[in-house]
Amino acid sequence: MTMKETTTDVDSANKLRKIVHVDMDAFYASVEQRDDPGLRGKPVVVAWRGNRSVVCAASYEARQFGVRSAMPAVRAERLCPNAIFIPPDFARYKAASSAVREIFRRYTDLVEPLSLDEAYLDVTENKLDVPTATRVAKAIREHIREEIELTASAGVAPNKFLAKVASDWRKPDGLFVIQPAEVMEFLLPLPVGRIPGVGKVTESRLKQIGVNTVGELRTLDLALLEDQFGRYGRRLYELARGIDHNPVVPNRPTQSISAEDTFERDLPLSETDALIRRLAEKVWLVSRKETRVARTVVLKLKTSDFNIITRSHTPIGPPATCDELTAIALSLRERVKAEPGHRFRLVGVGLSNFRDAEGLPALFD
């Protein structure tokens, strides 16, 4: 991609940081294909079978049929009847992730993992004095391919927001670089749905006010965005200008994990069972990527008139299975007093109060 020089808001805001975002390609499925050559080139779905299971990962062969992570496993099976279902093996995935992170640390100690399969690196200065961030990203991808026999995509940019967008630009097995002078020319035509954090609901609300692209978002003033989206409005205002002040923070401990969804129509409390179960499954799968253990289960509900209700419970021992997490979340719903006729527009399930595993009582020794 060739871009002419432009003056951007990002130049002074980010002080020419060099950020790399590395995202492993179909990570869990790729580990399975690496370890079992018979799976290579075939549609692999990492998931338990069953009505309540969701997809942890799908190989690119399965994605061609529309299979995606977090999709109900039964739907994945309908979309791709020939898919090979593999139960997840998080111990192997964590081992592969640790090997990848060792490669990152050859170049910088400023590594911020987001999960087992992606991380931010600040390579403004790097240990090996490689002259450019692009060369660092290329070298890291080559090491991952040669030493771990997996592929990774990478984005290079002046900040975390842009680097994350860039890493997705040429997946799988790709590298994309956004130079500071190229930011606005790259950013303005993007659909607003490409902004990390803009989900379907926010995207729909933006479209309702005539905003389809980042360029259109950039025309809105801060007051309007804050009125429409609260505190997130300021974030949207800055991202539309390519601004992201957030530094790469190594060893950032997880404080909480949550998943939530907004209903297509407001529902009575009694009809939230299926979604609570689905959200609990998503949260459980994400929590398996953590080395620390969550003690507290949280249920969040938003009423039709936008009041937020939360209930939480800290059991004697942390939830040991997805079924246990689901049961606690459903029991928390029973503690919500809803009058007849009350309707709810959103439900969320979360885990919080993370602790080091070795600091917890050994209840099952």
From TrEMBL:
Q: Catalytic site residues?
A: 118
Query: Is Iron found in the keyword set?
Result: no
Q: Which UniProt keywords apply?
A: Cytoplasm, DNA damage, DNA repair, DNA replication, DNA-binding, DNA-directed DNA polymerase, Magnesium, Metal-binding, Mutator protein, Nucleotidyltransferase, Transferase
Where does this protein reside within or beyond the cell? Answer: Cytoplasm
Q: Cite the EC number.
A: 2.7.7.7
Q: Does the keyword Membrane apply?
A: no
Q: Which residues form the UmuC domain?
A: 19-199
One protein family per Pfam = IMS_HHH_1
Which cofactor names does the annotation list?
Mg(2+)
Q: Where is this site: Substrate discrimination?
A: 28
Q: Which reaction does it catalyse?
A: DNA(n) + a 2'-deoxyribonucleoside 5'-triphosphate = DNA(n+1) + diphosphate
Kindly list the GO CC terms recorded for this protein.
cytosol
Note describing how the cofactor binds: Binds 2 magnesium ions per subunit.
Q: What is its main location?
A: cytoplasm
Gene Ontology biological-process entries: DNA repair; DNA-templated DNA replication; error-prone translesion synthesis; SOS response
**Family membership noted in the UniProt record:** Belongs to the DNA polymerase type-Y family.
Q: Which HAMAP family match?
A: DNApol_IV (MF_01113)
Subunit composition? Monomer.
Its function? Poorly processive, error-prone DNA polymerase involved in untargeted mutagenesis. Copies undamaged DNA at stalled replication forks, which arise in vivo from mismatched or misaligned primer ends. These misaligned primers can be extended by PolIV. Exhibits no 3'-5' exonuclease (proofreading) activity. May be involved in translesional synthesis, in conjunction with the beta clamp from PolIII.
Can you name this protein?
A: DNA polymerase IV
